Structure formats: structure tokens, C-alpha cells
Amino acid sequence: MEKKETIIEITNLHKKFGDNEVLKGITLTVYKGENLVILGRSGSGKSVTIKCLVGLVPADEGEIKVFDTDITKLKKTELNTLRVRIGFMFQNGALYDSMSVRQNLTFTLKHHTKDIEKEAIETQINEALENVGLLEAIDKMPADLSGGMRKRIAMARTVIIKPEIILYDEPTSGLDTITAREISELMVSIQKKYQTTSIIITHDMACAKSTSDRILIVKDGVINAEGTYEELEKSDDEWVKSFFI
């Protein structure tokens, strides 16, 4: 059997905010080309885990290896160099409202790729928007876009830097069922096209089913269950079953 290449490895991750211990020893591995979904109730530490993973929130204890490098030991400049290889899609899309779609994408490209040629910018913007089916929205402002379109543009902005890892934080939240399904399908097509490795934080079980290669369930700051959607759906554990009702 072919040995899987480990891209992310978190060991015994702890994080407290004041007296609130959110992460109590999270340990997980993500393999190259895998879509890993993390489920859990609100406040269980799902989003904190991926924020620790990119150094947005410092870990109190534990090891976080990304591309075989422990990010908890990196200086800020070294961390920034590593972050260029990671795309982060925030829950609200986080587009700059004062910029057009074209300007949003240009800003991201210039931030990540210094001295990039104007022609290369235009080519990469067009490719990213074609990937999400929204080339016609290139000169629109975020206020003129629907919720689903904003998510698609946020996804275009995430993939335009050709990241090796994509972290999705509630990618389908606030969307109707059909639009949520389209976003889930888009995530799978991006994974196949770019061979990305992804962690997907979601409450949306339809999204979890269609995008996941493997699922982890977080309870009380630790991993409580692991398996494929089909395996976990058949679990006898009452807590695990509660997600599939």
C-alpha cells in the first residue's frame, strides 16, 4: 500500500482564552490531496484550530507541523513565507467592499507575488473567475453581488495564489440549499484541478458528505470520532449520531 504524504500534523494542541480552555489536546493529521472535514458544536474549537494552524492565534502548547515545519517555532518573517502556500477562506468571505472584484483579486495577487507583470495579473484573474463561473462579475462591486456570488469571489481570491493548502471556515453558511450545494461542488472541483489539501470547518452535513474524504468530530476540545461520512453515519455513539439526524 502506498504511503500517504503528511502535509499537516497537529499534536496535543492546547489553547485557552482567559479561564476558557477551548482546545484540550487536539491531535490530527491531514494527508496530501485530502479534504478533511471537521465537525463540532459551536464553541468546540474548530475555527480556533485552523487559526492556530496559520499562526493567527498562538498555541499555548503542542506542535503544529505544516510541510514538515513546526510553525510554533517560526519567526514572523518565516511564518509569512509559509503562509503564501496556504489559502484561507473566511466565513463571511471578507472581500474589501470599497474595491471591485478585479481590484480585490489584484490586491491579493500583488500581496503574495511581488513584481508580478500586469499581463500575468490579468491572466490569473480571468482564470480564477472562470474557475468559479463568474468572469462576468469582474468589474462589479461586492455590494452588487448575492451571498452566493460573494462566496464564489472569495473562493476565486483564495485559489488565485495557487495555494497547496486551503482552509475553509464555514464555506456554505448563510446560503440557500442550492447555492450551498454549488459551493460544495466547486470545492471538490478545485481540489481535483489543483490537487489541494484542505481542511473544511462546517455545520452543513450536505457539504460534509459531498466534500469530505475523511471527517473528524470535535467534542470538549478533543477529537471525539474519526472516519468517512458513511462510517460515522453508522456509529452507535449517541453524540456522533446526533450530527446525522
Automatic annotation (TrEMBL):
Keywords assigned by UniProt, alphabetized: ATP-binding, Nucleotide-binding, Transport
Highest taxon of the lineage: Bacteria
One Pfam family from the record: ABC_tran
GO molecular function: ATP binding; ATP hydrolysis activity
SUPFAM superfamilies associated with the record: P-loop containing nucleoside triphosphate hydrolases
Protein known as: Phospholipid/cholesterol/gamma-HCH transport system ATP-binding protein
ABC transporter domain ranges (all copies): 8-245
